[in-house]
Amino acid sequence: MNHKRPATDPLIVTVLVFPGVRLLDVTGPIEVFTTANEFGGRYRVQIASEDGAEVMTSAGIRLSADLSADDVQEPCDVLVIPGGPEWETLIKDDALLDTVRQLNEKSRCTASVCTGAFLLAAAGLLNGRRAATHWRHSRQLASRFPSVRVQPDAIFVRDGQMMTSAGVSAGIDLSLALVEDHYGAEVARSVAKDMVVFMQRPGGQSQFSVRSRVPHTRQEMLRRVLDTVAENPGANHTLTAMARRAGVSVRHVTRLFDEEVGTTPGRYVEQVRLEAAQALLETGDDPMPVVARRTGFGSPESLRRAFVRHLGVTPGAFRTSFRTTGVGTEDPAPAALSP
């Protein structure tokens, strides 16, 4: 899908809304696409509900729809399926699931935000595919829909025409990625600057900020290796293991990393694992041994050394910095450097 579209006919983005939808899941992507129009993009955004009526969001704000699902006649370039706090009820709504399937058939790319992945999974659209959702719900997505290959640490995942993203703000990350696909990195970068958001967020729920900084490579087998590391940083990623996955020699994979990525395989793996650890420390309360094991560092001491070497702080100090915004405090004492 990495094709830059000429500024000819506008690309159509259809956003499905329903009672109880989360407001930012809807407005975040819309803001990205409409802001892109100020920098050379050409998007036409339309909001559809099942019957064309307005809906009440989970925030208590009413949203008007432009048309009903049945009135969506022409194919759309992007279909956005947002989520909602009451996703357990939504996935039992057969009419809503039928609407999701109906709209998906008319879409070139279907993208979910947060718990919208549950709607796609319940509609049978994620069977056999990799997917992401909010970290709090990733285990439930995996257990309820075992045919879905859940990527618990990813900000967003692309698998064929389907894209799924993590928590609510990750819909912005996903939408920026689509803008870059359609109109190039400069347009996406301009949108990110205008919205004062990261083009590639450092850490967050995913390791994809490291992966997305790597220049595009024409080597398909190298792309597979890079994606495998990013998707599962805790797995075995020794040089020998990566060479075996790629089907080439250790010397060849080392040369490819040097020529295509500009670093060594070991440094790339450590960068990915470091951002994966940042994500877990920012969003969860797992003890350090668990964080170290899940991200491939093995031990808290190895994790600590990597943090100090690259970030200049310990994992404990890093986690503490995300416990408060600092608003409302005066002359706060520096956080203690705990392991």
From TrEMBL:
Domain HTH araC/xylS-type: 223-321
Keyword check for Transcription: yes
InterPro entries, sorted: Class_I_gatase-like, DJ-1/PfpI, Homeodomain-like_sf, HTH_AraC, HTH_AraC-typ_CS, INH-QAR
Keyword Protein transport: no
Gene3D superfamilies associated with the record: 3.40.50.880, Homeodomain-like (1.10.10.60)
An annotated Gene Ontology molecular function: sequence-specific DNA binding
Protein name: AraC family transcriptional regulator
